[in-house]
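Supplementary Methods S3. Complex input for the S-adenosylmethionine-bound model.
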Amino acid sequence: MMNPKNRLNDLSAQDWLRFTKTWFIHNPPRRKKSELLHPAKYPEDLIAEFIQFFTKPGQIVFDPFLGTGSTLVACHTTGRNGIGIELQKKYADIARQRIQQLESQQKLAPDGSKQVCRQLVLQGNSAELEKMWTSHSLPEVDFVITSPPYGPMLNKKGLATQEREEAGLDVKYSDDAEDLGNAASYQEFVQRLVDIFRKIKLKLKPEGYLVVILQNYMDKGEYQTLAWDVGKELGKHFQLRGERIWLQDNKTLYPYGYRYSFVPNVHHHYCLIFKKVGFKEVD
Ligand SMILES: C[S@@+](CC[C@H](N)C(=O)[O-])C[C@H]1O[C@@H](n2cnc3c(N)ncnc32)[C@H](O)[C@@H]1O
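Predicted complex, serialized as structure tokens:
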């Protein structure tokens, strides 16, 4: 039975409480062949949990870095409408195929009706989302969830990338200059990312939430505190409400630095949670 006083979601009190714990373990299942090409897909079940906490059925979710469409798959299974933008045609095509396949398998409701929710895949640059919003007459969205490129990190070589390269899989998204992963420096990357989220803020309804999934990482001997830096910078434009730490316990441990230096196997991600509230923009 839904509680009419619950303004945010349709969860039971128990499920609400469970979600507020600041860490969880999630081991992604093995990926399907069509999804393997992409270097950094996130698991749909994990995203579905966030969607079920931050929205009610029928509301609209947006992902500005859609990749292979996992957010829209989670929207489909949870009965939400989804909009996603992905720069690369090859990934946008995978996302469209995944949605089409799900929609074609969808069972009819008892009254014979089909397809209550819509999933929209747009191919383009999220830095230009204003144009896409106008040309498709898109509405305000209720919730934003995404994992952007994790800094210029995919452009560095390592033991893990070597294995993907040998298997003929992508180790970076593209050579496209508009791809945030190809930003010239770490500082430029953070700035461009924050600029995109400031544009997104204008499309998010008041009191709406934004969840950004990121990692800190080691690059050329320097530990880049990407999740913390983005938390600080975005916190100037949204209210930072906290974090949920996603622990992955099924990844290969590589002997980075073995016998000479501590080098971490980073097997956790930060799911940073922000809210659009009525405080003034800081420039
Ligand atoms: C971490 S991946 C997202 C993966 C996605 N969550 C999934 O499950 O497949 C980041 C994606 O952002 C895309 N991207 C990079 N720069 C972009 C931009 N300026 N606009 C839109 N997409 C961009 C990349 O091509 C990549 O697919």
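The two ends are 45 Å apart (CA to CA). The chain has one domain: 44-105+115-275.
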